[in-house]
Specification:
391 residues, 27% strand, eight-stranded parallel β-sheet, alpha/beta, six-stranded mixed β-sheet
């Protein structure tokens, strides 16, 4: 049994300086008044020293970190990337792939299964997120066009067989067979997200009916105003606002989404439907100036410039180098959003979107004791997974 006390604890009612959290076997057992902790004389006491105790961050879109990519082809690389983000407060991670040959995606699923069996990682994994290859090549961003293709019936069957490991797919609903794929796989618990898409608002509405629940990195490869057959259509960007049930992702690195834009989305969409993510690639958590987006090969070389990964010709961003603690500081310190709402956009909303809110996303009785401790400058002072200190 452990007792976390002496800090500013974020609960449903807001930040509380007069509460303590009691855990046992990795689960939050009780939340009590600070002056009642003497009732738990046998508990290990963890003094927060006036720091913030928040729900652990949940990153639903992250490709790598620490010099490793989740598609590098080894369990050790996956573990390195996951542990890098863990040190920065991410207590639940959804390793994200990118467009690749389907055999490589299946290999990544196999590696993920092996990683899930590792004691070091089993408690922090939420499931795989496939970003591509079922996207629109016209909206491919930094993803290689030769590795983008529509799903086949055999691919859909393979994903269904692995629906216990694959939690989310970002794809373009206007591409052949994608809506059918969503209708087939959504009942198995896979969340579908509108991503790298040129879809119109009307196509986005059809996607929602087919099972889509979110928009991948809003304003990055999401369609807007377009004229088709002399008629003006609005796109997925506007659907993110206009379709209430859709969650929207935002890459909170200060580059993909400047502070003014995050402030606008917050005002229009509201704190309950925004998920802040890193979209981090392998250079996150390092100081390198050159790296690779996805597989280490000449075609995938990128540069790190002005706090973000870019294609060498600087024609496109190529993923962020952010960590979730950096995203938190950006949203609170630069954008000026309330701590309570930013925490929601980094933990609870993701848990609700991914249907894990019964165990994750907030500090409440019965949930996993996944915490990030932040000092008054919002720097990580401690990370706990099921009440075990990890950083």
């Amino acid at each position: 049994m452990k007792c976390f006390y002496g800090g500013k604890i974020l609960l449903k009612e807001g930040l509380c300086a007069d509460k303590a959290v009691i855990t046992a076997d990795g689960i939050i057992q009780d939340i009590v008044a600070a002056d009642a902790v003497d009732r738990y004389a046998n508990a290990e006491r963890i003094d927060l020293n006036g720091n913030f105790l928040l729900p652990g961050f949940i990153d639903i879109h992250v490709h790598g970190g620490g010099g490793a990519d989740f598609m590098d082809g080894s369990v050790s690389a996956m573990l390195l990337a996951a542990e890098t983000h863990l040190r920065h407060g991410t207590t639940t991670i959804f390793p994200t792939t990118m467009s690749a040959g389907f055999d490589k995606i299946e290999k990544t699923v196999l590696n993920y299964r092996q990683l899930s069996a590792c004691e070091e990682a089993s408690d922090i994994l939420g499931g795989l997120h496939l970003e591509g290859p079922f996207i629109n090549p016209k909206m491919g961003g930094a993803q290689r066009r030769d590795l983008i293709y529509p799903p086949t019936e055999e691919m859909i069957k393979a994903i269904r067989r692995n629906s216990d490991a694959i939690a989310r797919i970002s794809c373009a609903p206007e591409i052949a067979n994608v809506l059918e794929m969503a209708e087939t796989l959504a009942p198995f618990g896979i969340q579908f997200s509108l991503g790298h898409t040129a879809a119109t608002y009307e196509q986005a509405e059809l996607a929602v009916r087919a099972g889509f629940t979110s928009v991948t990195h809003l304003y990055s490869a999401t369609s807007g105003f377009q004229k088709i057959d002399q008629k003006v259509h609005i796109g997925v960007t506007q659907a993110g606002y206009g379709i209430d049930e859709l969650y929207v992702e935002l890459i909170a690195d200060g580059c993909h989404v400047p502070k003014e834009l995050l402030r606008l989305v917050y005002r229009l969409k509201g704190a309950d439907k925004i998920c802040l993510v890193t979209d981090a690639m392998r250079a996150a958590g390092t100081n390198v100036t050159e790296s690779f987006l996805g597989e280490i090969c000449t075609e995938n070389r990128v540069i790190i410039d002005d706090g973000v990964a870019k294609l060498p010709d600087k024609s496109s961003f190529a993923g962020s180098i952010a960590t979730m603690d950096k995203a938190f500081r950006f949203a609170v310190c630069d954008v000026g959003l309330p701590i309570e709402d930013v925490s929601k956009m980094m933990s609870l909303n993701q848990a609700k979107l991914m249907k894990i809110e019964r165990k994750k996303g907030s500090i409440a009785k019965g949930k996993d004791a996944d915490f990030v401790v932040l000092d008054d400058g919002f720097n990580v002072a401690g990370v706990y997974v099921r009440a075990v200190k990890k950083a």
